[in-house]
Amino acid sequence: MANRQIPDTLLLEERAVHALNAMVGLADEDHGGIPFFNADLNHKPAFMTHGDWDYGSSHGRMVDSMILARHMSGSAYGTEVEQRYRANLLSFFKEDGMSYRERNPVKDWEANANLIDQRAVLLALTSWFMTTGDVKAKEAADRHVAALKRIAVKEKDVWYYPASEYKETGWPSANAIQLRLAPDPAAFCGRLVMPLLKYYELTGNADAYELSQFFTHLIIHRSGVFNEDGSFNSSLAYRSGHFHTRLGTLDAIARLGYYNRDASMINWVKKCYDWALTWSTSFGWTPGDMHDQAFEHETCSLVDLIATGITLARSGYTQYWGVVERFLRNHLAESQLLDLSWVEETDDKSKDVPGWLSYYKVAQRTRGSFAGYSAPNDFICDHSHGRGHTSDLQICCLGSGTRGLFMGWSNTVTEDNGTISVNLLLSRGSQWLDVNSYLPYEGKVSLDIRQDIPKLQVRIPEWAGYTKVRFTRTLGEETSEGSGTEPSRWLGHCFLQLGPARAGENITITFPLSFRTTTETAMGEQSETSWRGDDVIDISPRGKRKPLYSGRPNQDETPMREGEYHRPDKEYVW
């Protein structure tokens, strides 16, 4: 199909192609294709290092996110690297069905089955099987789920893991079980619910569903991770209120509540989610935790916020679609590393430490990554009240960031019992219709209808109001107009009801843009933020190392370009 003119605005599928560049570039050819975990871009020259996360965690996230990126974009770039990641992932399993960290040739850490890793492992196996039907992935996942159930400590109403690492000889200390010295339940049990539930939905694996139920009961009723008012328990035993593990747990439990149609569970998630939003900026920056890592935002946390917001919105709390769109357009998009002109790199390997550290072409290889730790206004975080500058990239955030792109892309247009909903005003193609978004330049969205639709609804941003919303419908020589002033046009205060739509029809919706300034607070520090619709166009004070939100679109005419959207033959839903 020949390219056509489309708005030159944020296109999530293109961002996924950039992410593939980093996922391929981080593979260490001098160390069995195992990807680097960290990168320090502020160093001259920049360098990358390995870590004990290199195994199940990193490989699981890379396999999962490469699958999702390809589904969004249709790109085949780096398939040979992905196949090596898949082979490595399977090689980390031992006879007991658990995924183990390997010994590093330079750093002598202990081989173990870290419980944090198991979530990423099952995530990858689930996406792998969902998209290919590969029996190898299913066999590994079935053994893995059986192992996760077997090693869990089981009480009447809750199951849990008593330590952060499991060994081939069993749990390190039976005494830990008796004294209930279990480490952070959100990190090791709560976040596992998400892939367990999805694997059950795909395969009917009863053990996966049983685990998700008992882990959820543990989190809500017995763990103490979340306080009664929905706030995070900030004690040291609970990783000082670590945001990624808490928000990831909320994402998981929201999905279970949605699947079970459990209103009480959804409301519990909403209470905790609303509390988390009070600690975040309205454009998506979150603390790392509530104490020492408070100023170190992880892209992982932002993606958890996005995913949880989507489930709450699909559960009927439609106001969260606006929250999700702001997060996607702003801190997720800004957290992706596309401009590396400020990074000093070298093609000299003379100072490399094989299996541990490399200075080789770091800028080229990391383009498309997502920030491991960022400030609200700077890609580089070096805050005097935190731990200072630690690292700039983490591969977990690359995997999560790509998954965030997919969650936004796959929920832009959804179908439910014949109703097609345009939930996010982002450009993308689909089997039902194409969305051409002119935001943030103009308050305008154009829909090209690809097949007959019984009922069509489009979300209008809350700042656009309704009295000045206009739409034009054109099919062949027929043109009609309408406005948002008709009460029957609205559902849930945000969805414009357009009724049936026919193949070949074009529907163009316009509304006034909002120009405003907000005062944002991040861990007690304030900044002035200028908005154009849902897009931040400037933050004051600006960052010093690699400023974010500088030079963003601030013109009234939308640039156009030649292009075409990728429309997969089948839509996979996570």
From TrEMBL:
**Highest taxon of the lineage:** Bacteria
Please note every region of biased composition (Basic and acidic residues): 554-574
List the biased-composition ranges (Polar residues).
Answer: 520-530
Residues annotated as region Disordered? 520-574
Protein name, entry field: Glycosyl hydrolase
Give the originating organism. Answer: Paenibacillus solisilvae
Q: What is the lineage of its organism?
A: Bacteria, Bacillati, Bacillota, Bacilli, Bacillales
